[in-house]
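User: My instructor asked us to take a sequence, write out its structure as tokens, and then describe one feature of it. I'm not sure where to start. Here is the sequence I was given:
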Amino acid sequence: QYSLIKDVVSSLKRHRMHEQQFSHHPLLVLSNFGLQQMQLKLMASMFQNMFPSINVHRVNLNTIKRCLLISYNSETQLLDLRHYSVKVVPVGASKGLKKLLQEKFPNMSRLEDISELL
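Assistant: Let's start with the prediction itself. The structure tokens for your sequence are:
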């Protein structure tokens, strides 16, 4: 079973598709491949070799725009592939500061000073 990208995009309320999203390889997450069966080891090795490995000490988190989750279900012996878009957003900041950090300029006409925004 699969879905075409045009079907996925048409079902979303707000889709985020841009060219930069595909300029870097995705972060690969393998789930339930820890079993000792030879075919699972072979599948895990194949998926790991499809994408370059990531050095967690040197990776720039802003370059990771996608995540590919591959999960193995041992009962049905099926693979589930999910492809996610990753967006980095500031946490713990005021609404006005978040807009500035995301390079969106808020309406400041009702404010007298920038400190009211922050």
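For the description part of your assignment, you could build on this observation: The two ends are 48 Å apart (CA to CA). Try explaining in your own words what that tells you about the chain.
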